[in-house]
Amino acid sequence: MIVRSQVLQCSLAFGESVIVAHKTRQADDKPFVDHFAVTIDDWNKDEVEAELKRGGLELRPDTENNFVVKDPDGFSLQIRGKDMEL
What we know:
By secondary structure, the protein is mainly beta. Helix content is 12%, strand content 44%.
């Protein structure tokens, strides 16, 4: 099911999973994977933040319901609460 469609972005939902496709930001216009996200049902911002920091991850708050971290290879991972709007 298409949950949101704009000129440069489209969000596709499959049950509780979502794929967001958008125009590339790469200078060569090649497709790429920007990041992936995991959703936590029982979101508690303070507990998630403490656990990520305990794991030695440098986190960037993005909204009240998510953080973005880099994995050991430098790939972006979004960790989000179930109620975060797309």
